[in-house]
Fold this sequence. Notes:
It is a single chain. By secondary structure, this protein is an alpha+beta fold. Helix content is about 20%, strand content about 35%. The chain has one domain: Alpha-Beta Plaits (2-Layer Sandwich), CATH 3.30.70. The protein has a 5-stranded antiparallel sheet with strand order 2-3-1-4-5. The longest helix is centred in the first third of the chain and has 13 residues, at about 10-25.
Amino acid sequence: MVLLLATYASSHAALWAEKALKVAGVPVELIPVPRQVQSLCGFGLLAEVPDGALLQESGAENLWQVREPEAGQWRRTYEPYL
Length: 82
């Protein structure tokens, strides 16, 4: 499982994807997009999934892999997910 942040082109798209994924049984959390991530929309979906396929199918514009903070750090980091 990998923790991913999906960004969307609009708030409407993010809210639609959240609803569709929850109906499909995928646990997702709607969050404000962190400053480190560039997005046209201010919301993103955070989900722990086996791969990014489900999030891409939901209309995600970009996927970011979430890295937990290392020792001495307090912020998560985000890397483009391929």
